[in-house]
Write a structure and sequence with these properties.
Blueprint lengths: L1 H40 L3 H17 L1 H6 L1 H11 L3 H27 L1 H7 L7 H11 L3 H16 L3 H23 L10 H27 L8 H36 L4 H33 L8 H27 L1 H9 L1 H5 L1 H30 L4 H25 L3 H34 L2 H9 L5
Length: 463
């Protein structure tokens, strides 16, 4: 009995520690964002409304975080194979990929003005949004490199360095933003574009804090680039990163559509949707940490002919994910009225029934989203990416977005319609992925052969 309890405790420690540490890392991101939004909420109504569009666009750019999370999975796999040379090549390729990704995002910002005009935003908001992204473009490449470094350290299981770098860089950035809002540093007027420059501090600090121990870990060999082999690894990162990004793009695109749809209405409607987007993003960031831990944990047992360990990891992470979302929901519910009054003021009093209805719907959707995302993560850990990608494209983009449009515009359900569509779409996709995961585990059991697992490892391709 005592041996069984010790074994379960040991399994839970191996499972819970990475999940908790990665969740803490995401919590730092969330707290930083909430504090920045709280500072902007007190500047002016136009600034707060502009921040809604700024952060909805930044949410789309967080696809870069999803994209670069592929690095941690590839590094963990190379470490499981005891291939230090391969690990080093992946690390070298990660820097090149992060720079390429940063340049691509900056290119997107050049077309931001016509995109915002399409959504018919209020004239007083567009200049604020454009000014922010002009200044933020200087920070994009350092932030992408910082995200790549975080993914590298997660793959190397150095979670504490990730959390430390995040705490230091986030705290210092928020300090500068807060002092700027008070008129310090010789600033007579605080503008949103100044926050964009502050993000440059965040990216550079994080890169320096993580870069130094990384170079010490690999010595000077990181500077010895082998171009041909690096490009092979770049291909692996790009393929797997594209899959992970596309799997998670639907929620971010939906958030972007959501905020811009209400942009056709009033600034009050924008504020309501912005408030709920912060709540959804909090949960999504927590789920990201848990799903990263899931895929890394499952990948450790990919070469094993026994599936019991895989099943345990999936069950443990589903339990952890459910607990995390439950704690978040209870915490938000306890302080919901205070938070809503702080951010929305009299809007909350006037639209109380609608806001409470949206809260219940979004909360239900978060549990379904967590289940769906952990199924995705477990399949990624088993390096099953093709069919889940097909499921994602067909359900989300060919069925989900048209359904959202029909419910929101044809049936005139507005924001409520979009959230109903999101819940239905996520539920269908979650069921399909769960069935796929069960079949993959059955195949793993049926093979029962280490030889087959090794042959799959040597012929590994992301697709």
């Amino acid at each position: 009995m005592s041996t069984a309890i010790l074994k379960i405790t040991k399994d839970l420690r191996k499972t819970v520690y990475p999940s908790i540490l990665l969740t803490i890392n995401q919590t730092i991101h969330i707290l930083g964002r909430i504090i920045i939004v709280a500072i902007l909420a007190k500047v002016s109504k136009e600034t707060f409304a502009a921040s809604a569009f700024i952060f909805s666009i930044l949410s789309l750019s967080t696809l870069s975080y999803y994209f670069l999370s592929a690095i941690s999975l590839l590094i963990r796999r190379s470490l499981n194979e005891n291939d230090t040379h391969k690990t080093q090549l992946i690390v070298q390729s990660s820097f090149l990929v992060s720079i390429m990704l940063g340049i691509l995002i900056i290119g997107f910002f050049f077309y931001l003005n016509p995109i915002l005009r399409i959504f018919n935003l209020p004239n007083q908001i567009i200049p604020i949004v454009i000014d922010f992204f002009k200044s933020y473009s200087y920070a994009v490449i350092p932030i992408c490199i910082f995200y790549a470094l975080q993914s590298i350290f997660i793959g190397l299981s150095s979670y504490y360095w990730v959390i430390l770098s995040n705490i230091i860089s986030t705290t210092i950035t928020i300090f500068f933003i807060y002092m700027g809002s008070l008129g310090k540093f010789g600033l007579s007027e605080f503008n949103v574009d100044m926050i964009g420059y502050m993000f440059l501090v965040y990216g550079i600090l994080g890169t320096l804090i993580m870069g130094i121990p990384l170079f010490r870990y690999f010595s000077l060999d990181l500077f010895k680039f082998k171009i041909k082999k690096c490009f092979e690894k770049i291909g692996d990162i790009l393929r797997l990163g594209f899959v992970i990004s596309l799997q998670n793009a639907y929620e971010l695109i939906l958030q972007f559509i959501n905020i811009n749809m209400v942009g056709w209405l009033t600034l009050d409607c924008v504020a309501i949707q912005h408030f709920f987007n912060q709540y959804k993003l909090c949960a999504v960031m927590f789920i990201i940490g848990c799903s990263q831990a899931t895929s890394l944990a499952v990948s450790q047992y990919f070469n094993s002919p026994f599936s019991n360990n895989i099943k345990k990891q999936i069950k443990y992470h589903l339990l952890i994910g459910t607990l995390i979302i439950t704690i978040l929901v209870i915490g938000i519910w306890i302080f919901f009225e205070y938070l809503a009054l702080y951010y929305l003021g009299k809007i909350y009093i006037e639209q109380k029934a609608l806001i409470h209805k949206l809260f219940l719907m979004i909360t239900l959707g978060l549990f379904i989203y967590m289940f769906r995302n952990l199924c995705f993560a477990a399949l990624r850990g088993l390096f099953d990416n093709v069919k889940p990608l097909y499921f994602c494209i067909s359900i989300n983009f060919l069925f989900g977005i048209p359904l959202d449009y029909y419910l929101a515009f044809t049936l005139n359900l507005g924001i409520i319609g979009i959230n109903i569509g999101a819940i239905l779409t996520t539920t269908i996709l979650g069921i399909l992925l769960f069935v796929r995961l069960k079949n993959k585990i059955k195949d793993h059991e049926a093979s029962g052969s280490q030889k087959l697992a090794v042959s799959q490892t040597t012929k590994f391709k992301v697709f």
